[in-house]
Amino acid sequence: MSVMNRFMNFLGLQEEEEVVERERVAQQDEQEHETTAFEQRRNNRNNSAGAAGSGSANNVVSIHSQKNVRVVLSEPRSYDEAQEIADHLRSRRAVIVNLQRVRSDLALRIVDFLSGTVYALNGSISKLGPNIFLCTPDSVEIQGAITEMLAEENDYTKMR
Question: In the chain, where does DSSP find H-type helix?
Fold first, then answer.
């Protein structure tokens, strides 16, 4: 019973039975409305299962929205191929870039271009090894770090 109903009942403007009956009807309407909304969502999901992206105003979001997550391996030979790598990043694909077969000045230009692309997309770039980089869009999270292998190899050979 709401405060307003109690107040009106206290003043004698309405009887307590009317208030209780109104509250029961309101509760039944809410329960019917909730059931109807649930059934409507279920029916919408069943009807639109075959027509993905049909533009229905469904607020239910699948947690498996990306079925095929791809990681692209790229070994560019020229600076022109850097744009193809940027296109993969714009399509929300992670790219592993191997720059071991290009000149060091060209590799530096490609890394600069990809760094700008990754920055513009709020992604990240990580060094995996000598001249090997992982470029990811913002939808991919990178955890951990790979230490510089050359420093460890030098320490290891000194210990032998």
Answer: 3-11, 16-47, 81-90, 104-120, 149-159
